[in-house]
Amino acid sequence: MTRVRTIDAEGCRFRAASPADDDHVLGLMTEYMTWALATFEQTFGYPMGGDPGHTPESLRRFRPPSGLIALAEVGGLPVGVAALRTNDDGVVEIKRMFVRPTHRGTGIGAGLLDWLLDRCSDQFGARIVRLDSNRFMTAAHRLYESRGFTERDRYPGSEIPPELQDLWRFYELPLTPATGDDR
């Protein structure tokens, strides 16, 4: 059963994106990757490499039935995005969670994460939720830890290249089948 959440983000709506939303999803994910790559280089002093752009093809792994893309909207305009994909044996991974800088600190990130966690359990029957986050994303770490995520060793299936994994934090949250999550 989906739990109701109250967040500070007045007028924010969370919903599953459809292929009709691809322009918004791709725009937000590209904005996220552009910011992340630039911040990585500024923080660690060397470029991570990679193309920040996303394509409709790159969204396939996050589409139903084995995934989900979520949008956060304020006043009908997309301001946040996140995706999840099922991996193996009851494990779901959250990826590309991003809220535009103009809307950070409003509770949208927390609401988006809570919305996704509800679906991990309810829709995908997940036992475990995993995610990774670059070490410079300290506000994200605080959010994940506030929801019960704990740091763990690198996990199989991570898209982070082995030579960069020391610059990332890997998290896990066990879910309980009867009640959804442990929060």
Q: Please count the beta strands (DSSP E, at least 2 residues each).
A: 7
Q: What structural class do helix, strand and pairing data support? A: alpha+beta
CATH class: Alpha Beta
CATH topology annotation? Aminopeptidase
Terminus-to-terminus distance? 15 Å
Low-pLDDT stretches: 1-8
Evaluate the radius of gyration.
Answer: 16 Å
CATH superfamily: Gcn5-related N-acetyltransferase (GNAT)
Number of domains: 1
Helix content: 25-40%
CATH architecture classification: 3-Layer(aba) Sandwich
Keywords: Acyltransferase, Transferase
Pfam families: Acetyltransf_1 (PF00583)
Organism: Microlunatus soli
Protein name: Acetyltransferase (GNAT) family protein
What does the model show?
- With 183 residues, this protein is of the alpha+beta class.
- It has a single domain (12-174), classed as Aminopeptidase, CATH 3.40.630.
- It is 26% helix and 27% strand.
- It contains three helices and seven strands, in the order E-H-E-E-E-H-E-H-E-E.
- A seven-stranded mixed beta sheet has the order 1-2-3-4-5-7-6, sandwiched between helices.
- Strand 3 (77-86) and strand 4 form a beta hairpin.
- The longest helix has 23 residues, at 22-44.
- Mean pLDDT is 89; it is low at 1-8.
- GO terms for molecular function: acyltransferase activity, transferring groups other than amino-acyl groups.
- Residues 12-174 form the N-acetyltransferase domain.
- This is Acetyltransferase (GNAT) family protein.
